[in-house]
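Reply to dn_fold:

You asked what the input looked like. This is it:
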Amino acid sequence: MIPTKVQERLIAGIKKYQPIVARAQDRDINESDTVTIITDIFESVLGYDKFSEITSELAIKKTFCDLAIRLDGEVRLLIEVKAAGIDLKEQHMQQAVNYGSNSGLDWVVLTNGLIWKVYKIIFAKPVDTDFVYEFDLRKLSPKKQGDLEMLYYLTKEAMGKSNKNSLEDLHTQKLFVNKFIIGQLLLSEPIANAVRKVLKTMAGEAKVTVEDIQQIIEDEIIKREVLDGDKALEARKKVMKATMPPKPKVGVAPAEKAN
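and this is what came back:
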């Protein structure tokens, strides 16, 4: 839940900066002037101290990132800024992620003042990236809680020590509450078996198998895009791991399957 004072600040910030970023795009201002606007947003809307918590002096492999957020002496967030008139592209995301990975930071924001994209860097081998969420500042409604939360996750209050895991929690939610995971859950044996039990109470002695139910779900209910590709494969692995029955302890016979 967003604290009342923070919510009031976010609402005022949306109303103030929506016309500012729109004019910046119309005027096609340069990157340096866009950085100035982003710095002001991080100060007056997101709540950071301009002189001690927002810096443009973070060196990464002999170059400097556009902006970084430092809290309690620790850099927590990198911000890669592009000019307001430039459409954000894959190459810009890669540049931002490279900065983050080279500096050992988990969280990166890519923005042109209008569009804001938030990424989580996964330090695996090789380094990977999860796109967490994005928003268009021009389209945020100060009356919608969900829109305010888009901004809130980037505030000092959310990123502060007591709420260090706010973005982490959102990232976890995005990883598991999505169409790929839910699609694989629908195909899993526990869910199909639950459907089978209900059908047997409805259809009496009609022959209903788990395999039949899974086939219908796969062929006639779930879209192919949910079942195909790397994301679907990763979701399948997660669901299989979560729904796999526990291994019986040594010396204890496994429970018999229910009819």
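The mean pLDDT is 85.
Hope that clears it up.
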